[in-house]
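Quick note —
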Amino acid sequence: MHVQVDTQREFEQSADQVWKIGGDFAGLQAWLPGITALRVEGSGAANAGGNAVRVIDLFDGSVTKERLEWVDEAQRAYSYRILSAKGIDERADYVATFRVTPLDANRCRVDWSARFAVPDDFPADKQERAKQKVAQMYTMCLQALDAVLARG
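Predicted structure written out below.
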């Protein structure tokens, strides 16, 4: 069974400004705290025959690997699949999408969503906790992005 998590945050910057930083698959370390190193192996999105995987070293010593699934520069969106992370492996079928939508010339909204599998016999309360944990993580990440953008 798959569950869906959707988070969003409005920004007081243009969609292009937010996309320039938030939409850089290789640039996560520039705005997300807790990353000690990041490198991208390969290049290009999987849907276009590419093999880009970002390898993220985290402050707790864990390593996360995410494959770029697709990117749409015109729509300011990309999607990635978590190949491995602390508590997550490929069986989770975890796919997330980061999208920047203009609201007007100087404001935009970021939508960050994820869809992932949980065991069929997973109790409803554990499903809800898993969803809340992901939503809290993305909310914190978007707050960090907002803080970096506000500093200019």
